[in-house]
Design brief:
119 residues; mainly alpha; two-stranded antiparallel ribbon; globular
Amino acid sequence: MRAVILVVAALFCMPERAIAEGIILRGAGTRTCAEFARNYAANPKYFEDLYFTWAQGYMSAENQMFHEMGSEKYKDLGGDVDVQTLSIRLYCDRHPLALYKQAVDDLFLKLPLLDKRDQ
């Protein structure tokens, strides 16, 4: 348990990836897929939940951004979570140097597109 606490502390104390002079992204999505894989190997359930919770918030924010820009379309986030987390793990397995965020972006692009006018 102590090792898990140390890993979590290290995960959130690392410097964030920054663009230009400001930080535009924080949290688990700024870690590389290799970092995710190491964390996942240490405690699969805990770290999958931790990272995927970040992913769900990130994808929800993307949908909200489209809504605020006046889009009638949005991504359906209601699919099978096990399929979604598997998609992220597979992406990370193939792209260890990519950011976890990139694996989430890949998943987001694959999700079904819905139209609010059809509701």
